[in-house]
């Protein structure tokens, strides 16, 4: 069941000055986020992804289309009605947005204060959440005494204070180093699994998507150009922008310029093999080559995994007798796609 549904949603900003054109930030986007998803929305700067997430919690209003959140079209709700909807939507930010004059505990308590929860309930909820994010010992600290990763953990605890069913993470790891990023992503995964919170992750980082997302939408110039399960989209991208994201973590087929360099270094025949899911095992392919007496060297590419499922390409330089190479390649083609670059 879709917890968040967008139907032909557009957001057009009026001209900034007389004679200037209007700006279409979101262009006829339709999208379904099901309960329990960790849904990644990925795109380069200016693709419209951050605008999209602000539409979901009604921080901005769409120009046209329907935005259904938990069965309600938020585009037609009054501001008073929207405040109730927002209680069910948590938000974490790239720059943390903590209140520097408040302690960690009081930062987490802030949404509960706004919602009118009694002090006793606030105290218990804050203690529970700080324990969950591993910061129980930092309750009395102030934000400027914390590391970036600790600040984001406080941000996650604060976003969970009102027990939302949806969590929006807008570039939540962009300001963090790689090790801290993976710690925060692991925490978000726990939020999803243990609390059943549906998470929408906005990012330009492919590593974030492949680490925790179950589904992904690729945005470019305000449009969703590709969507689906993460493995399907990134193991076999159909759109150029999707392929560019994949190339940031996995090298695919060498370009003409890269191939020219490979040819200078290797005199043998050069072939590229595709590996997707468990359809073929690298060991089986390498065994076929070895048994046939064909020497080989991996000269380009790589294999990656999404949720335990491998995909990628390996480019090999082969040396041996041509008829033997032809015969073994014919057999390997029954296992996977083989492209020989002449």
Global geometry: elongated
* Alpha-carbon Rg, integer: 25 Å
Roughly what percent helix? 25-40%
**Count of discrete alpha- or pi-helical segments spanning 4 or more residues:** 12
Please name the fourth-level CATH homologous superfamily of the largest domain: P-loop containing nucleotide triphosphate hydrolases
Widest beta sheet: strand line-up: 6-7-8-3-9-10
Order of helices and strands: EEEHEEHEHHHEHEHEEHHHEHEEHE
CATH-derived architecture of the largest domain: 3-Layer(aba) Sandwich
> Roughly how many Å apart are the termini?
50 Å
Helical/strand content category: alpha/beta
Mean pLDDT comes to 89
Poorly predicted runs are none
Main β-sheet, in a few words?
A: 6 strands, mixed
Number of domains: 2
What is the CATH C-level name of the largest domain?
Answer: Alpha Beta
What is the CATH topology classification name of the largest domain? Answer: Rossmann fold
Number of strands: 14
Features:
single chain; 342 residues; alpha/beta; Rossmann fold; Alpha-Beta Plaits; 2 domains; 6-stranded mixed β-sheet; 4-stranded antiparallel β-sheet
Structure description:
With 342 residues, the chain is of the alpha/beta class. It folds into 2 domains: 246 residues, 3-Layer(aba) Sandwich (Rossmann fold), CATH 3.40.50.300; 86 residues, ACT domain (Alpha-Beta Plaits, 2-Layer Sandwich), CATH 3.30.70. It is 36% helix and 30% strand. The protein has a 6-stranded mixed sheet with strand order 6-7-8-3-9-10, sandwiched between helices. Helix 3 packs parallel to helix 5. It starts with a strand and ends with a strand. The model has no long low-confidence stretch (mean pLDDT 89).
């Amino acid at each position: 069941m879709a917890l968040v549904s967008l139907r032909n949603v557009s957001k057009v900003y009026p001209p900034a000055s007389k004679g200037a054109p209007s700006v279409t930030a979101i262009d006829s986007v339709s999208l379904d986020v099901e309960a329990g998803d960790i849904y990644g929305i990925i795109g380069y700067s200016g693709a419209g992804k951050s605008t999209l997430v602000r539409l979901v919690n009604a921080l901005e209003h769409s120009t046209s289309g329907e935005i259904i959140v938990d069965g309600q079209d938020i585009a037609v709700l009054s501001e008073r009605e929207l405040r109730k909807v927002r209680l069910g939507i948590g938000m974490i930010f790239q720059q943390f947005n903590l209140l520097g004059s408040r302690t960690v505990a009081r930062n987490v308590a802030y949404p509960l204060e706004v919602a009118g929860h009694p002090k006793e309930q606030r105290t218990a909820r804050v203690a529970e959440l700080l324990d969950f994010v591993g910061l129980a010992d930092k309750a009395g600290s102030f934000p400027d005494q914390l590391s970036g990763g600790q600040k984001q953990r406080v941000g996650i605890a604060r976003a969970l204070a009102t027990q939302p069913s949806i969590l929006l993470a807008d570039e939540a790891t962009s300001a963090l180093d790689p090790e801290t990023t993976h710690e925060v992503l692991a925490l978000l995964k726990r939020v999803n699994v243990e609390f059943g919170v549906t998470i929408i992750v906005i990012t330009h980082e492919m590593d974030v998507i492949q680490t925790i997302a179950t589904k992904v939408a690729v945005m470019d110039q305000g449009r969703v150009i590709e969507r689906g399960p993460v493995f399907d989209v990134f193991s076999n991208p159909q759109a150029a922008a999707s392929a560019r994201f994949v190339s940031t973590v996995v090298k695919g087929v060498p370009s003409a310029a890269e191939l020219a360099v490979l040819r200078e270094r290797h005199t043998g025949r050069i072939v590229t093999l595709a590996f997707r899911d468990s359809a073929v095992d690298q060991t089986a392919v390498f065994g076929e080559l070895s048994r046939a007496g064909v020497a080989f060297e991996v000269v380009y590419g790589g294999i990656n995994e999404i949720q335990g499922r491998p995909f990628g390409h390996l480019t090999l330089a082969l040396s041996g007798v041509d008829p033997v190479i032809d015969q073994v390649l014919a057999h390997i083609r029954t296992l996977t796609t083989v492209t020989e670059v002449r």
